[in-house]
Amino acid sequence: MNNYAIAVRRALTCMVLALMGLASMPAHATKEKEPNNSCSLPQSAGTLTDSTLTGTVPSYDADYFLIKATAGTELEWTATGQDNGSGYGPLGAPLIAVYDSSCQLLVSSSAYYDEPMVKLHFAVPSNGKYIFEITSCCDLSGGYGQGDYLATVAAYQPPPIIYGYVKEANGNPVSGASVTLFHCPSAAYELCDDQSVTSASVAQGSYSIGVQLVPGDSYQLSVSSYYASGFARSPVFVAPASDLRVDLRFAVSPVAITSASWTSSSVPDGGTAGLTATMVNQTGASQKIDVWLWVQMDQTGAEYSSTRYQQGQTGSAKPVTLTLNPGETRTVSLSFAAPKNALSGTGGYVSFYVGKYAEPFNTYAVYDNLSYVITPAGSASLASGAVVEAERQQQQERMMRGRVQGPRPLATPR
Amino acid sequence: MKGSIRWIANLLPLCLLCCAGTALAVQDLEPNNSCSAPQKVGAFDSGQIVGAIATASDVDFFKATSANPGHTLDVRLTPKATDDSSYPIYDALLGVFDSACQQLASVEAYYSDAVIRLQVPADGKYLIAVSSWPDYQFNGSGYYAGGYQVSVAPAPGKISGTLSNLNGAYPGYYTITLYKCPSSLYEYCSQAVMTVYPDAYGYYEFNGTYLESGASYQIAAAPYYESSSVARSAVFTLGTDDLAVDLALKSPSMSVALAWSSSSVIDGGVAALTASINNSSSKKTVDLWLAVNASPTGSALGISDFQQGGAGTTKAVPVQATAKAGKITAVPLSFAVPVSALSGSSGYVTVYASQTGQPANVYAVSAPMYYEVVPDGSVALLNAEQSLERARQQQRSRERTWFQHDLQRREAAHRHKPNPSVEQDGAP
């Protein structure tokens, strides 16, 4: 080979290497240029299909980019906080969104408060134009957080789909249920609860989950429903490389509580409040069961103001034991001693538990809509039903909103 | 005749006083479906409107014609059953417009009241609109019907204060929660309205449309990962002036800590624990019991809550112990783990120490200690540090679920708003 041929070969090799290098890097790197903080006045970024954007969002700022791409192409945007020397540091919890060219929101996605990365995917609209927005969690009009970002767009690689049918024990499709995907510590576990990955609603008896899973890690599906009785969990499975069908069927609880109530609407100061619960044996075999009350009390006025304790046989914590014949329905009475001279506003709720108490994990049913409150008159007002449940849910939501809206101080307490 | 005139003259100021003290109560009267043809409600610096969105396509507009310009008012929508509707409206939307029908603000009543803080425009005129989500343009494109009440009142003052007696603890370790009371007659209030964190100096503040002028409140401080309060204010009623409400932490007379005696137990074994009672007051006889939570269990219900006292699965009766003054008393307790529980079953154990025979009169509660059935069938018992980390993970998981839910709703709301463009200019 002569020198000329060697030189040509070297040049070709260099070109190939350079092209390979280019192939592994985004083709374009675009820097944001203000003003670009309105969907109606976005920064024009040209044609981007395998590219990066860098920039900075101070508090309440949002950056918008008008981008061209082939109509119908499925693209994925990934945004991370990355220091680019502006002085703000990396952006925490980026929020990204895609609009069509008339500023109609197509999709958005946000990182949680201390998560640095977020992704979304979408199909490019038919006119080949879309607007990409980046800001900070949690307001599309401009979030409170601030910092530098790096956003990357690339062709979307769809993850395998986990799908299947959810049926009640009698084979009827379940509606109004929610399927949750849990991550498992390892494939050796039978129950996984350490981390909820995502959830999906069950529509007309079927569900579908498309989420990027960690290859080799194990997962489990669980179903919860207000309408179907019993429970359903899938076997533990390894993250699939292709679409995976996992059907779920509710199992029936051996004993169910069909109703429960107080026997009066109020009791005098320090009186004993009676409760009854009706339970049914849903199997063809006799069921020896234990029944107990779990008392939750808040704002007691004591040094530690909340308490939880068990009540069973009158004046004792010991559960009531009984045997239900196959298919039998029976009403069981228990009681709860309202505290004497309790401060008004002291209250809580009482739950009926049914299970094999000697096997304490084997609980069959709980009924917990029975609340009480000490009124200014000194008597205990007793309530039951969905109203109480709704109040508790609302209160929990308010608390969560409070916690979400009020981020913790930065210092770590000891 | 003169007597009659004098009688009327005497009655008139009384009458005026009565009228001034009585809030206006306006009934929704159809047709009032557009901003250009609203129901007129008079001055409306304060008062109430009671009405119903009859069908999902109904919208109600009310026009205040002579309010005090520049005054700050809170317009609050509360979903509730009324004479016109036997059920409260779900997911209502409240809007406020100026007299030129320009929308000034809109808020959704989702699991709470919707409140808009309004500065009355210079012409003294404003409009209140009621519809349902996602009708942000108030043109009848809502999804729900039902009853509601709208209240207009002068904006309340803010509540602020300082958390003291911290004994060296970092203030951010505590949460400060504002509770609303059914009435000022109550000694304890339980409807949580808002939770905030004090700053590095212990200062906290409640200031927002979640406050109601004329409502009764109570404030309590609690450690971040506990629901039980360690300081509570007296019940107070908020007016239009700012209020200062300080809290001082109380040092409990007793504390109790729980520790496993080993790091694991075999399948079906007995997990031994020691409860250490630290009593800084006089000698007391106390009841001790373990509250055991299990979730998931793999059983029909998937969760369980039960009590353990002495050793053995069926002995739920509390253990009695004497806590000597100024000393730490160690009390052995145990929790029998079930045979052949599914791996992954887990939960936590908490010890309660109360006055003997008075389970509501609790002196102290320990931090939860976690356990988990592992694949070889044995039960791993997590130490205090690992248990705290597990509790934090679970709290974070609950907050994350709420966060995702909230985000989906924000996105849906944004989709229905007329213009998603940004007005702020925070560009560097």
In terms of topology, how is this protein built?
The complex is a heterodimer of chains A (414) and B (428).
Chain A: H1 3-24, E1 28-31, E2 43-47, E3 51-57, E4 63-68, E5 74-81, E6 94-100, E7 105-110, E8 117-123, E9 129-136, E10 147-155, E11 161-167, E12 177-184, E13 195-201, E14 206-210, E15 218-225, E16 232-233, E17 237-238, E18 244-245, E19 248-249, E20 255-262, E21 266-267, E22 272-281, E23 287-298, E24 307-311, E25 320-324, E26 329-337, E27 347-355, E28 363-374, E29 380-384, H2 386-405
Parallel strand pairs in A: 1-3, 2-4, 11-18, 11-19
Antiparallel strand pairs in A: 3-10, 4-9, 5-8, 5-10, 6-7, 6-9, 11-14, 12-13, 12-15, 15-16, 15-17, 20-22, 21-29, 22-26, 23-24, 23-25, 23-27, 27-28, 28-29
Chain B: H1 2-21, E1 25-27, E2 39-40, E3 47-53, E4 60-64, E5 72-79, E6 92-98, E7 103-109, E8 114-119, E9 126-132, E10 146-154, E11 159-164, E12 174-180, E13 191-196, E14 203-206, E15 216-223, E16 231-232, E17 236-237, E18 243-244, E19 247-248, E20 254-260, E21 264-265, E22 270-279, E23 284-294, E24 304-308, E25 319-323, E26 327-336, E27 346-355, E28 358-365, E29 369-373, E30 379-381, H2 384-416
Parallel strand pairs in B: 1-3, 2-4, 11-18, 11-19
Antiparallel strand pairs in B: 3-10, 4-9, 5-8, 5-10, 6-7, 6-9, 11-14, 12-13, 12-15, 15-16, 15-17, 20-22, 21-30, 22-26, 23-24, 23-25, 23-27, 27-28, 27-29, 29-30
